[in-house]
Amino acid sequence: MYSRVVDERVIRSKYKNQVRPILVNNWEATYFDFDEKKLQPIVDDAKEMGIEMFVLDDGWFGHRDDDNSSLGDWSVFEKRFPNGLDHFADYVHQQGLKFGLWFEPEMISMDSDLYKKHPDYLMHVPGRMPSPSRNQYVLDLGRKEVRDNIFDQMNNILSSGKIDYIKWDMNRHLSDIYEADLPSARQGEVYHHYVLGLYDLLERVVDTYPDLLIEGCSGGGGRFDAGMAYYTPQIWASDDSDAIDRLSIQYGTSLVYPQSMMTSHVSVSPNEQNGRLTPFNTRGVVAMWGDLGYELDLTKMSKEDRQAVKNQVAEYKKIRQVTQYGTFYRLKNAQTSNQCAWETVSPDKNEVVLSVVKVMASAQPYLTKTKLVGLDPEKQYEDQASHEGYGGDELMNLGIYDPVEHGDFMAHLYHFKAIN
Question: N or C: where does the chain have the smaller number of CB atoms within 10 Å of the terminal CB?
Answer without folding.
Answer: C
